[in-house]
Amino acid sequence: MGIEQRYANVAAEVAAVCREAGRDPAEVTVVAVSKTVGPDAVARALAAGARDFGENRPDGLAEKAAAFPQATWHFIGNIQSRRIPDIVRSAALVHSLFEERHARKIDEAAAVAGKVQDVLLEVNVSGEESKGGLAPGDVRALLDVCARLPHVRVRGLMTMAPQGDPAAARAVFEGLANLYAQLRAGLDPAQAALFDGLSMGMSEDWREAVRAGATIVRIGRAVFDDAFEA
Residues 82-90: what's their mean pLDDT? Predict the structure, then answer.
C-alpha cells in the first residue's frame, strides 16, 4: 500500500471516529509527521490531500518548509535555545513550549522575523520522568507570561501519552482536555477564541485522543511506514 492510499485511509478513519464521537471531522487536523522521510514522500502525501506536516528537527523543518511552502509546517520536537530563530522562521505552530526562557527567546526571534509565533504549551499529564513538559499545575503561570509577550500567541496545549496502554492514554488525553477547559474558562473572550488547540494522539493512540477532544493528531508511521500495523 502506498503513501497516497495510507494517508487517504487515515483521513477517512479520523473522519469516521469524529462522527462516532459526535464531532465534526473539520474540527480535527491531521499532521503528517514527516521527520523520517524525504521530499518525495512529502510530495506524495501532499498529492493525497495532506496539508499539515510535522518535523522534530530544525534542519528538516527548514529544508522541507522551503521545498513545500504550500504546506503548513509544525515543529513538534524538543526546543534548543540556539535553534529557536531557525524554528521560528519556518514553523506555523510550535507544539513543544514549556520553558519560560524559551518563550522569551521565541518572542525575540519572532519580532526579528516580523511575525507572531503560534505555540502550544506542552504538558506532562502522565508525570513520566522520561517526558518533557509542564506539570499541570504550572501551566497557568507560563500562560500568563506568554500573554505579556507581544510576539507569542498561545493557541492551546499538547501532550504525549504512555505507549502501549489505550486506557492509560485515554486518561491522559481526558486529563489534558479537562485542564484545557479549565484554563479556557478563565480567559477573556478574545483570548479564549484563539485558545483553540489540543494536540494529542499519535499513530498508536489517536483514536482515544479524538474521542477525548483532540483538535490536532500527529500521525507519522501510519502514513509513511509500510510496516506499521494499526
Answer: 98
